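Objective 1.3, modelling of assemblies. Example input:
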Amino acid sequence: MALAWQQFRFERKQFWRNPSAAFFNFLLPVLLLVLIATAFSGDEDELEVLIPGVAGMGVLATTFTALSFNLTILRDEGILKRIRGTPMPAGAYLAGLVGSAALNAFLQVALVVAIGALVYGVEWPRDPLLLVLLTGLGVVCFAALGVAFAHVIPNEDAAPAYTNAVFLPLIFISGVFYSANGLPPALEAVAEALPLKHLIDGLSAAIVGGSGDAAGAAAVVGAWALAGVVLAVRFFRWE
Amino acid sequence: MPELAIEVSELRKSYGPVEAVRGLSFGVERGEVFGLLGPNGAGKTTTVEILEGYRPRSAGQVRVLGQDPEERDRRLHERIGIVLQSCGFYPRVTVREAVAHFAKAYPAPRDPGETIALVGLEQKADARTKDLSGGQRRRLDLALALVGDPELVFLDEPTTGFDPAARRTAWGVVRRLKELGKTVLLTTHYLDEAQELADRVAIVKDGRIVAEGPPDRLGPGSSRYRVSYLSDGRRVEHQTDDPTELLHRLTRDALARGERLEGLEVTRPTLEEVYLELTREGDSV
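Predicted structure (tokens):
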């Protein structure tokens, strides 16, 4: 437990020393949010889609993308192998690593919600507790899937291509920037099967009182979280 | 008889159809520097990685500080230090931060500053690890392996890629470890390194040990001493187990002929010659 905390602090220190990671984690989603929100600033319906959408995208980027990318680098560079040769327990190490990603996810969601409320006049979250719970569930789900996905990425050089191949189509079909209701049925079916759309529906219910079914959303995200944890543990590679 | 630091008996390891280690046995005493010497692909690294707990073995018995490394008991990892062949660092932290961070995983670590001094990296203590040279990175490897104050240190080709000055520094560190009473298992393909550092050496070829002993006493079969001299400008060479008898005969005959044995030399085969003879390609043992 103490070691997990040490690892967490060590990861935070490194995170802030990596300007490009800090940019992709915090500034890029905010930039997209501001650009699109400004374009549609008079359109309250669009803003109520956009704020939960970008919050969900932030969870995906800070956990799934960041963890699968970083773990691939750590594995390729032999840093995981080095750690495996020390008394550091695997669980404490991963807890520190995932904990740092989780903090980024919560900061991102808070940032998006705050900008929505302060700059664009979207209401403050109607159900803050639900927002925290759903964000937490989304973090568990996408962090586990990110750890599992690192197994699929063959090497460091391929990491950006692999993570973007998931990230970009997923945000396109999951209703991040616009409502996903108008999608062709085939794409909608894919989005329905994957967790991001459900997370966004749930966040929408928590933030703007969207019509989505929060319990149903939580069930789908929870099922993916369970699958992610099983896959992450089963296929974890140290080298 | 105190327990050995490392005991390996009939160790085997296969990767699919390829048998990398084929019945290897050796023991390392506490406080000893033991060298595993052999060409690339001989099975040295596989053997060491089994001892370090990275890989399961296919057959045989292994004890490291009295424990089976395959169980991956945390208490064993608290007592050993590992320098792997190639291993990265967190790029955005300094040497001091990296050493201090790794120290936290051990129950009784060595002081990080002292550890950095031990490997001669004081000048670079506040440099980011990504800005270190190859030799400096290897010294940081060593510092990270030593910060837990281990009883047993594994060094897998610790000076590969070093310039001569950096090698001397690294050798100094290994001698210092020995003075501190640590046990060291060293793999190397540098003969001078084994000769310089190891109390005992095992030469590994094709997953087997082909010779074992103190480096200055390793010799194949009976060709232990070599006596040579110049005769009509050409070097004549004899090999013998009993140089006293041979020299007596040679000098007696020469004196009887009224000659001198020009350029007379009595030498033992160097470790290099033994090594080259034992590991010659296509020479099945």
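The interface with chain A takes residues 52-54, 74-75, 77-78, 82, 84, 86-90, 92-93, 97, 101-102, 104-106, 144, 148 of chain B (CB under 8 Å).
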